[in-house]
Amino acid sequence: QVQLVESGGGLVQAGGSLRLSCAASGRTFSNLAMGWFRQAPGKEREFVAAITRGGSSTYYSDSVKVRFTISRDNAKNTVSLQMSSLKPEDTAVYYCAARGRALFPRKIAALSSEYDHWGQGTQVTVSS
Questions:
Q1: 73 Cβ neighbours under 8 A, 6+ residues apart
Q2: Which of 21, 38, 41, 73 has a Cα at 20 to 30 A from 93?
């Protein structure tokens, strides 16, 4: 069983930055494709970013492209989400997700149903 623990959330002013981290355990991390999703109050969970098992490919939603960067450290079993130029609409609970198979075809990276394991989430609040 894969355990995922997110950290790094908090309160930040619009235009600021935050870095989220997700620590994974329970399975060889390099065999896991990783993703970040978020859910705002009253809204459905939405895709934010994903990274392939080796880290060679990354995918982003249009709403965060350019502002957010996903990365992973397979030696430390962690995946991170660097968020910059934050906007109030980025306020949400951010979830780390893991998939025990390749992110192929590319379109599945954005589908929450394609991920097998989820963290508990970390709150990000952006004030205007």
A1: 79, 80
A2: 73
Instruction: Give the side-chain half-sphere CA count within 13 A for 7.
Output: 5
- The reply to whether omega before 41 is within 30° of 0 (cis) is no
The answer to whether residue 104 scores a pLDDT higher than 90 is no
* Whole-angstrom distance, CA of residue 111 vs CA of residue 105: 11
92 close to 110: Cβ distance less than 8 angstroms: no
> Would you state the structure tokens that stand for residue 107, as one six-digit string?
């379109």
Residue whose pair of structure tokens reads 């962690």 in the numeric block: 78
Separation of alpha carbons 14 and 35, rounded Å: 24
Asked whether the beta carbons of 69 and 50 are under 8 A apart, the reply is no
Give dist(CA 128, CA 121) in Å, integer. Answer: 23
> CA 51 to CA 59: how far, in whole Å?
6
